[in-house]
Amino acid sequence: MPSILSIIILLIITTMFRRTSSLAFSSKTNDRIKVAILGSGISGCTAAATLLESPNNNSFDVSVYEGGRGIGGRMSTRRINDESGNLLYQFDHGCQYISTPKTEFFRNELEKWKERGWVRKWNGTFATIRAASMSSSYDVELCIEPSDGNEKYVGYPSMNSVCENLLLQTKSAQSTLNIVTGKQARAVAVHPAEETRQPPWQLYHNEELLGSYDWLIVTDRNSAQELRPDLADANVMGFQQVNKHIESIKSCTTMIAFEKPLPLPFDGLTCDHNSNQELMRNEFKSLGWAARDSSKPGRSRNNDSPECWVLQSNPEGAARLLEQDELKDATLPQIRETIRKQMVNDFIDCLPTLMAKSGCDEIKQMDTPNIVDSIGHRWGAAFPSFLKQKGTEDQNMFKDMECQVFPQQQFVACGDYFGTYAARVEGAFLSGRAAAKEVLKCVDG
Asked: DSSP character for 388?
């Protein structure tokens, strides 16, 4: 005869099974399954495309919400137009390139993108500036990478073209796609009565109801922060608690359009501050990366067009720049202007050194290059940084999961902080695909 404890355990398991079955059954009996995705970066666009092209018998209504003015997230491209709306020049001011794939799956996907014309190889010259290898020398050296080094691919004709194509070129006979930009969506868990089978999620922009959804996919780790409204009423404590173990590294970017090309022998430059932090800080200050954006395929306009450069900070340089006393109560436009001035000055100041180390003194005879335009930008969450967990030797608790799913709440989190390849386009892609696969798995029961 079964014990009372056994009966209680059986009742609990039966209740959980019924509840989970009810959720799956509710989704499968609806005519269409509505999915909201917060964020239009690589992970969000990949999740949307995976759902739209899924071969199962369900029909999806997918809505992608982007708080910015365009698709791309950190794959964004800044376009500068004339008064008639014609493109003058552009900058990839977020992700700079797609690195050589680490997995066979992403390599195959990248090949598809190449065949479709979404990406092209960046056949530029790349260099690293670092402290001289001779320990007795307080100097820097410029090292040109071999031409057969790591492959670098870029979106064509702009970095965010990859995200745009994932959304707009994915065909589906029975599913639909809705893209909303310029609206910061706030998710509310409505917890409808089980027998009503109503969608458990509502999305708002301020007080405007954007829609009701069966599933919610969140791609921005910062959505879990207490001060962010995105998930303040979402009741996803499991996600919010886990994300307390991630810090976001800020980054500063400045876009410069020079009237004439700079006589530098490289198209991408890495400033290796780890080689000697004091020396590199004195010589290159906030700079961590500099790229001749005009050298990327599809970017050049004509001989009269400005030469576009993108500068990105090193982590310590960004922290020093953003933690200045004068920026404590500054507005976002003031912060961007401070970033612009500082990084332009840092780049101009180091040009003589870069030219000298390139074996050319031409810069000493030329005037400071005329700057047609310059724009500063702050990335509040450029890269993930993982906090060490108690009782573990590994800082990254997310490396063994490609996404995080809460089936009963019909909620999935994904992004570039999941998996083995965190902070890479590849990692974000794999995470977005995994998130969509989890939704499909739950929907199929």
From this structure: P
